[in-house]
Amino acid sequence: MSDRFKGMVLEGKLDLPFSYSAGRTASRFFIELRDHQRIMGKRCPRCNRVIVPAQLFCKECFTKTDDWVEVGPEGTLITFTVVYRKESHHPKDAPLAYGIIRLDGADTSLVHLLAETDVAQLQPGRRVRAVFSKKRIGHILDINHFEMA
Amino acid sequence: MNLRVGIIGVSQTKYETNKSYQAITDTVFEVVQEAMADAGVSREDVDSIVTSSVDLWDGRTASNQMLTDVVGAIMKSESRVAGDGLGATFQGMMTILCGASDLTLVVSQCRGSMGDPYGISNWVFDPIFQQPLGLDYLSAAALQANHYMKRFEITQEDCARVVVKNLNDAQNNPQAQVAKETTTDDVMHSPMWAYPIKEMDAAPVSDGACAIVLASQKKAKALSKNPVWILGAGCCVEAHYLGDRDLTEGEALAKASKKAYEMAGIHDPVKELDLAEVSAEFSYQELLWTELMGFCGRGNGIKFLEQGMTSAEGALPVNPSGGMIAGNPVTVAGLTRLVEAVLQVRGKAEARQVQNAKMALAHGTTGCCGQGQYVMIVGN
Ligand SMILES: [Zn+2]
Known about the structure:
The complex is a heterodimer of chains A (149) and B (380). Chain A is mainly beta. Chain A has one domain. Chain A has 1 helix and 10 strands; from the N terminus they run H-E-E-E-E-E-E-E-E-E-E. In chain A, strand 7 and strand 8 form a beta hairpin. Chain B has 380 residues and is an alpha/beta fold. The interface between A and B is large, with 46 and 43 residues. Zinc ion (ZN) binds next to loops of chain A.
């Protein structure tokens, strides 16, 4: 083992602004959330799957998606977790819950926050419904969370 | 593979909560010197260098640039993998297989202590759909754990048994960060972090580094009395978006391991492999990964463990070193697994030595919930 002298430790902080372009498809997805409180997917012309959130292309077929399809706002819980550890990157205070949700009419699932943080109330297969934020800006958190349906 | 790549030198640090008594370059200098000494080579003999590190963990960008001097790369070919150390080994292997290098040094380093570990993992997620939700490796893994455990009726006590096995076995590993007599009660009583994952189900976060020396078949035979050969290798990657994946399926690992077995001529991994070192950051992952690598049927990972098959004296010991539960140098972890595998087939794993180990599997992963998967088979 190395000698355990107490070395100097210099403090630093990475705090840099970034701007991320959402692109044509995600922009339309967010505009639909913001202006119409609609969750949109896109259909793959080859495998017919409705992909949510809407994507430019189908990863399986490697083909551009075409038709826009409204899905949800209700869906089925595939899996969930309730997080108790507090983290500064959380959008709200712990405990907070996440779910992977298969929205009605969709063939892929959406990851989002759940309102229910009591593990006993949560079960895969439970029905959930999107609750939209009052103030919407064109962002994934324009869906505030999913509540039990 | 027509010609084989040999591993002729290995080194790893002790894994510690905090190596603030050293600069990163001090740590890397040590492992590089040790690996080259182990191989009996000097800087002049090395043709190319592959490093593995991740900028955000290093708190700077192009962070391999601070390593060029200390890995001996000045006036040599250097490239870097921003990911797991076993992934860097794949790249190192390719420098030799394509004829560009006869001797390649692979170095991986990470300091979990420098930043905010789960906070850094939040930045792994895409900034459009997932990162703003506050997801991190813990919450994403908990989504996977819960899905897997519900699908196959695995209990939290079952996962606790993985921790017990690893922390007890880690007492044989002087490099381990956490090693102690542990009971399932200890694990069950540790605080719930993200249902169903408790504090003790999660690997600690460590500081550490590894270095290995790879050589072409000819060079390995000329330089080494006991080269360890890379007999098989496979890698595969899944979709990034969590909702696009069935987190209980893990097809990438199934494919990566199948490819590695085919290359190594393995038909029955349980019979033919002598041990496996797998990168499981959370206890459930050791069960899930062993199933996906075909050690047992789907959902039988816990049965396989309970039968003692994966214990240090079992038919196929899994993580006799204690695995990541005993020490988690984050992006180094896959290379740690490979170093352990090499020490085992050399018969130099000391107290954690598996009897007559001739062929071992090393597994590494990158991204959340096993998005990227690497499997390597090594043997004499
Ligand atoms: Zn398709």
